[in-house]
User: What shape does this take?
Amino acid sequence: MKEKQKQVVDYTDDYPRWNDSMKSTHKILIPDMLPWHFAILEEVLKLEGYNVEILKNSSRAVIDEGLKHVHNDTCYPCLCVVGQYINALKSGKYNLDKTAVLISQSGGGCRASNYVPLIRKALKANFPQVPVISINFSGLEKGNSFKVGASLLLKFAFAIFYGDSLMWCYNQTKPYERVEGEADIARERALKYIVERFKIGKYKSYKKINAEIIDIFSKVERKDEVKVKVGIVGEIYVKYAYLGNNHLEKFLLSEDCEPVVPALMDFVMYCIVNVINDAKLYGRKTIATPVYKLLYKILHGMQKNIIKQFKKQGSFEPIHDFEHLRSCADKVINQGVKMGEGWLIPAEMAALAETGVENVVCAQPFGCLPNHIAGKGAIRTLKNLYPNENVVAVDYDPSATKVNQENRIKLMIATARENLKKQ
Assistant: This one.
């Protein structure tokens, strides 16, 4: 009897590769994960010679495309990203032979680190010629990643700081503007100013630029009112992306609330600190550890100077000091809990409570287990520490209706208004 020959399955796949020569020929599509920051980063990349476009498609058709092309066990942010790509590529707006898509990868214990093969698989049926580019700092997708040199990385860091200040000032201005639309005009003015500084190569003068952002918004005439403040925390995509959270910031503004969204630079420093903590907690010290320590020292020093500017100007509450966030985390959870957004979520909820923002929406996407554990799982401990904290955990997934999500948030806001009256 002949032995059955073993079948060798080749799991490697042929796919189009990105190379630098395509920079002059291809348009790069980017999902709009960070509306505040990507508006600046888009211009930075254009100045570097890249033809990029931030996708704005956000209809139900986007979600439906995601459902068709992504396994239903995959996390909701991945479904949104894939759906946004395919919906855009089907629109007929692009030359498919001269189009690529770009996605960031954190490199952590998250399915976001595995988005690239999922996106390739989704594109293969209809758009096999479209390359998928990875932008990461973890050594993933070697030979097919977006090259970020020291100069561009520096520009990214400054752009994130400016995006944070822009978001922070706008959200503290829009709910109180006396003349409707003035905050939006200020936002466009500030954005134009930031982009102009990049164009003339003066983007490193962060104190001057940040002071100008604050000054532009402080000139908007505001009503002297007390409104319910609602913090937004959670997994990074649904925390910031309007496609992922059903325009949560806009909804809170429509409910006469002030949305409070923590800074993106906090997530950047969280990723850096986790590498430093690995060396301290687990002995995983490498030759890069001192570099991360130096980088953290520089970024945190810049953040502290920006906080001083907010305090000195006096019109707006300053952004959170990251070292304070770390001390807040230590009250709730160990900093070794770093999967996904890990300890950063309870840290932000605690810091919000300590700065007078006791009402919080914890945005939880389907399939993000670390977020559910470190977010929803920490609420009881936070309630014990801050008895007045009013937290609602809201699930975001393809089957969750916007009405149900908003009704849950409205109940939280109703409680918040009662608490405000008592105070």
Notes: Confidence is low (pLDDT under 50) at residues 6-11. The radius of gyration is 22 Å.
